[in-house]
Design a protein that fits this description.
Layout lengths: L43 H11 L10 E5 L14 E4 L5 H11 L4 E7 H7 L1 H10 L3 E7 L34 H7 L4 E6 L3 H13 L3 E7 L11 H4 L4 H4 E4 L6 E2 L10 E5 L6 E5 L19 H7 L10 E8 L5 H13 L9 H8 L8
Parallel strand pairs: 1-2, 1-3, 3-4, 4-6, 5-6, 7-11
Antiparallel strand pairs: 5-11, 8-9, 9-10
Helix pairs in contact: 1-6, 2-10, 3-4, 5-9
């Protein structure tokens, strides 16, 4: 079955009013008059600028775009965008966004959250939004620390992390947000980097176009409380070996190489564990090299690739779209049920069907 065969919309913005012909918007149109208040050097600045520059490409009216955030540094996002927005409750942004997306098909719904907000108090809300496949785009800023409350360890901090709340080192095993999302069978899962504007924008475009819940993990540096956490994937000297680029339909290759291809690494199946592993390209047959398939309805291989993420000091990490599949969305189906329930009955009485649903079945009269 292809996307065109599916009985539900495949565009994330289907049903959302677009600009009139000839009408244009720029990044300035999506920039509010509020002073941006993050620490100097914070990765949030780069993400904000990328989002402000990208939103005009959607061709949607600003009043039909809404950003919902939770609590944390990243959650100040709605203040800085000239769209509708809500700075909501700690960890509950996906739940509030679910209600908005279900009630208002004419809105493009976005969630901005952090690793603490989304994966600690908000963990249960996040996985159920992913499971339900509500039509929204979730941007999860992961700096692997609590920044707003001044440097406590977070659910993504590496084991042994020394912070104000763990002076002898964290004993917690960290979450891998991409693995978590794939385990919840999210229909769109991706990872990108705050400082890679081109890659970040391309992932945002794919996420916005997806019908269903899109989760985009964004590695984001906190220069005050966790500076350098992502140096391995950002430094020109190490990023070629640290980043495992995922491109649908292409072989998964990475690492430093010369014109002869020496030093290039590839991903192959691991016959011992059943997962995947990195190998030197020169040591394996061409047909053994994995070809990335983001559209595979089975998330098993994507999950195995996500497990290559180094949870220690991030010396390697797969980057790109892990999974991008079509399946019915919760809000589309909920609206369909409401339409059926409120439809006219065969005798022409509007609402009779809804009344029969409410009053039918197991009812009783109190006398």
């Amino acid at each position: 079955m292809t996307a065109t065969d599916l009985p539900f919309p495949t565009s994330g913005t289907a049903g959302v009013p677009t600009l009139a012909e000839g009408e244009k918007q720029t990044g300035k149109d999506f920039t509010s008059d509020q002073e941006v208040r993050w620490c100097p050097g914070c990765g949030d600045y780069a993400v904000l600028k990328a989002v402000q520059s990208f939103l005009p490409d959607l061709g949607l009216r600003r009043e039909n775009i809404v950003f919902v955030s939770g609590i944390g540094c990243s959650s100040r996002f709605p203040y800085y965008l000239d769209t509708y927005g809500m700075h909501s409750i700690h960890g509950r942004a996906p739940s509030i966004a679910t209600g908005i997306a279900t009630a208002r098909e004419d809105l493009s719904v976005w969630v901005v959250t952090g690793d603490g907000d989304a994966l600690s108090i908000g963990g249960n809300h996040l996985i159920h939004a992913l499971r339900r496949n509500v039509n929204m785009t979730i941007l999860l800023f992961n700096n692997r620390i609590y920044g707003l409350t001044k440097g406590q360890y977070s659910p993504t901090s590496e084991a042994g992390k020394v912070t104000k709340s763990t002076p002898m080192g964290s004993l917690d095993h960290p979450f891998n947000p991409v693995s978590l999302a794939l385990g919840a069978e999210a229909s769109f899962v991706a990872r990108t980097i705050d400082s890679d504007r081109k890659h970040l924008t391309s992932v945002l475009a794919a996420a916005a176009a997806h019908r269903g819940t899109s989760l985009v993990e964004i590695y984001q540096n906190c220069p005050i409380f966790n500076d350098g956490a992502f140096d391995a994937i950002k430094s020109p000297d190490t990023k070629a070996d640290a980043i495992i680029p995922l491109v649908h339909g292409e072989q998964i290759r990475f690492g430093q190489h010369d014109e002869e291809g020496r030093g290039t690494k590839v991903l192959v199946r691991d016959e011992v564990t059943g997962g995947v592993r990195a190998a030197m390209a020169a040591d394996v047959a061409e047909e053994a090299v994995l070809v990335h398939d983001a559209h595979n309805p089975d998330p098993t291989l994507a999950f195995a690739i996500s497990r290559l993420t180094d949870s220690g000091y991030l010396n390697q990490s797969p980057i790109g779209i892990f999974r991008q599949v079509d399946r019915p969305t919760y809000d589309d189906q909920a609206r369909e049920q409401l339409t059926l329930a409120a439809g006219s009955s065969s005798d022409g009485d509007p609402g009779a069907r809804l009344a029969s649903l409410i009053g039918g079945g197991d009812t009783w009269t109190v006398v």
